[in-house]
Design goal:
- The complex is a heterodimer of chains A (about 55) and B (about 400).
- In chain A, about 20% of the residues lie in helices and about 20% in strands.
- By secondary structure, chain A is α+β, with helices and mostly antiparallel strands.
- Chain A starts with a strand and ends with a strand.
- Chain B has about 400 residues and is of the alpha/beta class.
- Chain B is globular and about 65 Å long.
- In chain B, helix 7 packs antiparallel against helix 10 and helix 9 packs antiparallel against helix 10.
- The chains are: A alpha+beta (about 55), B alpha/beta (about 400).
- Chains A and B meet through helix 1, strand 2 and helix 2 of A and helix 4, strand 12, helix 5 and strand 16 of B.
């Protein structure tokens, strides 16, 4: 997952992540290897700050 | 390894209140938050009802109240509005607009003064259950990793709700119930009244509404929440920019803050407790599904969680069976309302702009004796027969 630099670490993505694989630090977003690119977080982001890797 | 009776993860209003009441009840309490500043950045429109303070034994403090609210203005897509203000009708749900950055810190201080140990800049990384049933939470702070063992964990980690997921509780918020919220705090706003909350409905914010919450002088929280499934390809941010540009009060206003966050509006989670664990606040989805407001309900959840945790520690019983009374208290306090308002949302979010306009037109001639959300829904049923079918039984 590509995290754009305007991400504000609100954690909306982590909330809807079924696999609980997004760690929201104060100024970083860390995806674990469990991520299977389902894309739910991409749609939930209020800032459109997530993009699937090709 | 650090040992404690109660570990509260997340120092928002719910977590801090849980820590405060657990400590007051005699338990050893640690309250931790990942942020370096409790309360910042805010993820909230900052409205709170007046009754909250009594319910939580709090004195209203001018340090964290920006504005007293005397009414609401509801605006339909075509601009038709309905004013409901204290000078005309009794408003049982009147309230204040807070300064959350100050309020949240004060709530954490209340916990600290009751004896809770506060750890800021400390993040939970995971938890495991020990053979004796207690939980050990792996924590990280300033590059150091350490464990905290607690007899009871209170998960107050907001909409992210990692704690519930780690513990295997059924507390997941489906995407269709997670509002994507976004807000500018602005100056130069031209509100018609600086003590009235404004709500704009319709395609301006699909699955939610656009709000203006005044914070005194020319300052306003201008925000909206959408359900992405209803909102096409446009992001919440794009909706907000359009809404602000098209609204008279905000078109010349200047943003000084951008706030974002998820708001769980699916009603109380299925499991808000288990052996040695309680959830409160957004983590338990203690949010009014209609308004999206969760400060009062989250703090009440926090109070109950703290009280029950302290009782459990005294009794030496941290079992699911003992902690069950927490769910009962929460359900008695807000369960019925949540269910009702959920149904209202299911209905309200299906209305077209035209239908909303016609409702607003019909509301024009109405006189209200007393206004609460329930009264409004009753009025809605009168003017929109379709609403009676879906909501009649609940409200009439």
């Amino acid at each position: 997952m590509i995290v754009k630099d305007w991400c504000s670490y609100c954690g909306c993505c982590a909330g809807v992540c079924i696999r609980n694989c997004i760690e929201v630090k104060e100024t970083a977003l860390v995806f674990s290897d469990d991520c299977n690119n389902c894309g739910i977080c991409v749609k939930a982001c209020p800032l459109a700050a997530l993009e699937m890797e090709e | 390894m650090i040992k404690t009776d109660v570990l509260v993860i997340g120092a928002g209003p719910a977590g801090s209140t849980a820590a405060r009441f657990a400590a007051k009840g005699g338990a050893d309490v640690i309250l931790m938050d990942k942020k370096s500043e409790i309360g910042a950045p805010k993820r909230c429109a900052e409205g709170i009802s007046k009754q909250t303070f009594q319910k939580l034994d709090l004195e209203m403090d001018p340090h964290w109240v920006t504005r007293e609210i005397e009414g609401v203005r509801l605006v339909a897509p075509d601009g038709t509005d309905v004013w409901i203000t204290n000078d005309v009708v009794e408003l049982p749900e009147a309230g204040y607009i807070l300064e959350r950055k100050v309020f949240d810190k004060h709530m954490a201080m209340e916990a600290g003064r009751e004896g809770a140990e506060i750890k800021i800049k400390t993040q939970a990384k995971g938890l495991k259950r020990e053979d004796d049933g207690t939980f050990t939470v792996t924590c990280e702070s300033m590059g150091e990793t350490f464990d905290i063992n607690a007899k009871i964990i209170i998960g107050a980690d907001g909409p992210e709700s990692h704690v519930a997921k780690w513990a295997g509780l059924k507390a997941y918020t489906k995407p269709k119930h997670m509002e994507s919220g976004i807000q500018f705090e602005m100056c130069n706003a031209k509100m018609q009244r600086s003590d009235v909350l404004e709500f704009y409905f319709g395609s301006v914010a699909p699955g939610g509404y656009f709000w203006l919450f005044p914070k005194g002088d020319d300052i306003v929280n201008a925000g909206l929440a959408i359900i992405p499934d209803f909102a096409g390809d446009k992001s919440a941010y794009e909706y907000l920019v359009d809404a602000v540009d098209n609204c008279y009060a905000t078109q010349d206003a200047q943003a000084v803050e951008l706030n974002v966050g998820g708001d769980p509006v699916g009603g109380l989670v299925k499991e808000m407790y288990g052996d040695n664990i309680l959830l409160c606040g957004d983590a338990a989805s203690q949010v009014n599904p209609l308004t999206g407001g969760g400060i009062t309900s989250g703090m009440m959840g926090g109070r109950f969680a703290g009280e029950v945790a302290a009782e459990a520690i005294k009794a030496g019983d941290y079992s699911k069976k003992f902690l069950k009374k927490y769910a009962k208290m929460v359900d008695d306090e807000m369960g019925h309302d949540m269910e009702k308002y959920s149904k209202v949302c299911d209905y309200l979010w299906t209305l077209s702009d035209e239908e909303l306009n016609s409702i607003a037109h019909a509301f024009q001639g109405m006189e209200f004796s007393k206004i609460s959300t329930t009264e409004l829904v009753k009025a809605l049923i009168k003017v929109q027969p379709k609403a009676a079918l879906k909501l009649g039984k609940l409200f009439l």
